[in-house]
Amino acid sequence: MPQLNPNPWFFIMLLSWLTFTLMIQPKLLSFPHTNLPSSKTPTTSKITPWAWPWT
Question: According to the model, what pLDDT value does residue 1 have?
Fold first, then answer.
């Protein structure tokens, strides 16, 4: 059973994580953010209680 032998699978996992952290992640983090959370104004809505017809 190949899943019980961790030698090739551990190397593949380690290589994929290194590829992600060293190559893909800096490219993704360099993109500008389109929706900054600080630019949004908080909105408050008035909450009205529900009128249950059977009470």
Answer: 52
Place of tokens 């593949």: 12
Residues 34, 27: Cα–Cα separation, whole Å? 16
Asked whether the whole model's pTM tops 0.90, one would answer no
- Per the CB < 8 A criterion, the answer to whether 9 and 3 are in contact is yes
Q: Where are the domains of the chain?
A: 2-30
For the stretch 2-9, contacts whose Cβ atoms lie closer than 8 Å and that sit 24 or more positions apart, written own/partner, are none
Which tens digit of pLDDT belongs to each residue from 4-44?
Answer: 777 788 889 999 999 988 888 888 888 887 766 666 677 78
Which amino acid is located at 24 in the chain? Answer: I
